[in-house]
Amino acid sequence: MHLRHHADMTDASPSHRPASAPPSGKGSPAYRALVSDLLAGQGFAPGAIAALLDFDAENFLYVRRVMKGDMPQALMRELETGLEVSQFHALSALLRIRGGYGRPAPQEPTVGLLAEELCLDPSRASRIAADLVDRGLVARGVSQEDGRRSILTPTDRGTALMQAFLAAKWQRLSRLFADWSEEDIASFARLFGRFSEGMRREYPTG
Which of 128, 131, 145, 186 could form a cystine bridge with 90, CB 3.0-4.6 A? Predict the structure, then answer.
């Protein structure tokens, strides 16, 4: 099934716009009309336009939940960690840096790398790291590569906390996907990966 239709099937009339009023939370009629005109001008079919507008609204709500920290907050309440969202993100970032997740290779976590990973200024990252050290979740150490450099290492307690968080996260995800077929899960993973790759291409990191 093709998202686009041939240029000679496209006109400037409003027939490509979704006919009914958008559901609550799906964007204003003016916004949807504006985007519909833009996409129609690019050759997208009416059904694809309606689907992309619905996706845009759902993706916004998902990203907003991520930015607000709704998901980690819910899991942290379940685990009774007492952590703030910023502390949780910092602890998980240190483990990602150590494991090379989303990076060319594993690296020794430093305050500088933590600030880079979280898009924070170094002073803010340093304060969060100090809070984690005070809580016994992170320890300061000396780099094995450069003895002049201080590194941040999750303690056994910090690592255990993140393992508990991951177990709780996957418990919820397993419930979310419980009634999905194997084919639907595979298709979702493939299409989301395709979308993610396109976003990296269209919005490359500096």
Answer: 128
Query: Binning pLDDT at 50, 70 and 90, where does residue 22 land?
Result: low
Sequence-distant (≥ 6) Cβ neighbours of residue 178 within 8 angstroms: none
CB 40 within 8 A of CB 70: no
Distance, in Å, from the CA atom of 90 to the CA atom of 132, rounded to the nearest integer, reads 8
Nearest to 168 by CA among 96, 27, 74, 43: 74
CB of 180 closer than 8 Å to CB of 189: no
Instruction: Let me know the angle formed at the C-alpha of 154 by 151 and 155, rounded to the nearest 5 degrees.
Output: 120
Prediction pTM value: 0.73
Which tokens sit at 94? 């240190």
Contact predicate 33/20, CB 8 Å: no
Q: Which residues pair with 138 in a beta bridge?
A: 154
Please give the Cα distance from 28 to 53 (Å, whole number): 11
Residue 9 corresponds to which tokens in the numbers above?
Answer: 């099937």
Q: Where are the alpha helices (DSSP H) in 119-155?
A: 122-134
Which of these, 115, 110, 162, 116, lies nearest to 141 by C-alpha position?
Answer: 110
Degrees to nearest 5, angle at CA 111 with 105 and 113? 30
Q: What is the pLDDT of residues 81-98, one digit of tens each?
A: 888 889 999 999 999 999
Residue 106, token pair as written in the block: 């594993």
